[in-house]
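Quiz preparation item.
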């Protein structure tokens, strides 16, 4: 008799649990909450329509998915040997697209490599053009060491040796 009561209790407990299907709820709780910890509203679950993922487990991979709301993500990566003691660099490139609140599709293309992260998109701001004086100073800063001595000797007619001007005197050494 006790076993029948336990079995009936288990069945009643299972029947009282909310039925959301086989793990597919119609809505998911929002990430935001009030100061008391209660969730604010509910957000619909957006299904993943397609997804692929490939890797050679040696650093080369690609990944993509498309969701039910039209957003898409694509990422690929590989290892680039820089020839230094640090070893290879993981180079990634990809894009993502999403529908904005204005019903436009926005796409961001990006690259992450030894030069940092760079993103482009028609909706992203672009920097103003670099002033000519700053561009010249960057060009001069990238010249090899001692270039200022070569420029000075060309202008003045002096010969520089060991970072000192030579005025026609024989070097003693």
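Solution:
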């Amino acid at each position: 008799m006790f076993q029948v009561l336990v079995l009936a209790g288990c069945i009643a407990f299972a029947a009282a649990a909310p039925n959301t299907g086989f793990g597919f709820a119609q809505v998911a709780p929002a990430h935001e909450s009030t100061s008391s910890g209660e969730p604010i509203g509910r957000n619909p679950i957006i299904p993943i329509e397609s997804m692929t993922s490939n890797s050679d487990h040696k650093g080369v991979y690609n990944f993509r998915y498309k969701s039910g709301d039209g957003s898409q993500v694509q990422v690929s990566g590989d290892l680039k040997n820089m020839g230094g003691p640090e070893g290879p660099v993981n180079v990634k490139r990809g894009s993502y697209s999403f529908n904005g609140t204005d019903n436009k599709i926005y796409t961001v293309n990006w690259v992450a490599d030894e030069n940092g992260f760079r993103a482009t998109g028609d909706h992203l701001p672009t920097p103003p053009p670099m002033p000519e004086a700053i561009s010249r100073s960057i060009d001069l800063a990238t010249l090899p060491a001692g270039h200022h001595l070569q420029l000075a000797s060309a202008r003045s007619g002096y010969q520089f040796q060991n970072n000192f001007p030579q005025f026609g005197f024989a070097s003693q050494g």
